[in-house]
Amino acid sequence: MNVIIANKYKEMLMGLNIEVIKSMEGVFEVDEIIDTFSNFYFDRMILDITAIKNYTNLDNLQKLSINLDISRVILVLDDSPQSESQEYLSKLISMGIYNFTRNLEGINYLLGHPNSYRDVAHIHNVESYPDQATPENSVVRVKIIGIKNLTEHAGATTLTYLLKKHLDANYNVAALEVGKRDFAFFEGENFISTSEGELPKELMKKSDFDILLVDLNNYPDDEICSYVLYLVEPSTIKLNKLIRRDRKVFERLNNKRIVLNKSFVTESDVAVFEYEAGTKVFYNIPPLDDRKMPQSAINAIISKLGLIKSDEGEDDNFKNKLLGLFKF
């Protein structure tokens, strides 16, 4: 059964041939909509955006996306120039709002074929979020760095952890993992476990951070990140498994940031790997003890990523420090 909340587009929504369990007409505070439907089961909610009081304030839409199952909501946009801009649509996507349209045909399509992130990724710009409290041309930017295993168990979770611990000294950093809960075994703040569907929303919530590190796991849309570090453990068995699974993997990722991780390959042999794989290596990281800080290899890759500040020195808290082996 479905819910309709209508205002300006009431007549259009009356043309829907669907079963409706509850309908509301008028303009409502966002909290009123949340209170009414947060514990109310519905298959789909068709929500006329003009039925939300102060709907031009995107904070209200963000509150709605956090407190309702937004994957079940079809947002009917108005015809204003703002809502037609890619910047506006990108903000909706970052909140996890993927189902939006302006016409009856679009509503009928989304009722049977709701969008996933993949369907709207081409209009999503995750790096730019104009701040309503700042001048019109001011832009808040967050760098989103994805870390993804190409070979099995190549160390993405541990590398994400090490990068965060080193970057924390100079930046406001959060780390997110998708589809797993391995971060529960790490000590520290701003380690977030989330699902594929919730990742864009979590990124939007953290848009005031300087850097977001994302352990992508099996997340299918790498374009959600500013860029991605693709990890390869260059052992014979791991490489052969990778090539058997995807023979064109290095061709497909040519000019991307390929990182050899947990690598015993010497620097002189990196050129051999590049020749055989037909791709450049961004960095070669040896096996590391994740209990020791700082790590010269981690600082080196941070520098290559352009994230070392010019006045950065070694953090005294890291000097010769051995982290506790267990969290508990």
Protein architecture, described:
The structure is a single chain. The strands form 4 sheets. The chain has a 7-stranded parallel β-sheet with strand order 10-9-11-8-12-13-14, sandwiched between helices. A 5-stranded parallel β-sheet has the order 2-1-3-4-5, with helices on one face. The radius of gyration is 23 Å and the shape is elongated. It has 12 helices and 16 strands. It is of the alpha/beta class and 328 residues long.
Keyword list:
disordered C terminus; five-stranded parallel beta sheet; alpha/beta; 328 residues; seven-stranded parallel beta sheet; 12 helices
Topology:
Blueprint: E1 2-6, H1 10-13, E2 20-25, H2 30-37, E3 44-48, H3 58-67, E4 73-76, H4 86-94, E5 100-101, H5 104-112, H6 117-120, E6 128-130, E7 139-141, E8 143-149, H7 156-167, E9 173-178, E10 191-194, H8 199-205, E11 211-215, E12 227-232, H9 236-245, H10 249-252, E13 257-260, H11 267-277, E14 283-284, E15 292-293, H12 296-304, E16 321-322
Parallel strand pairs: 1-2, 1-3, 3-4, 4-5, 8-11, 8-12, 9-10, 9-11, 12-13, 13-14
Antiparallel strand pairs: 6-7, 15-16
Helix pairs in contact: 2-3
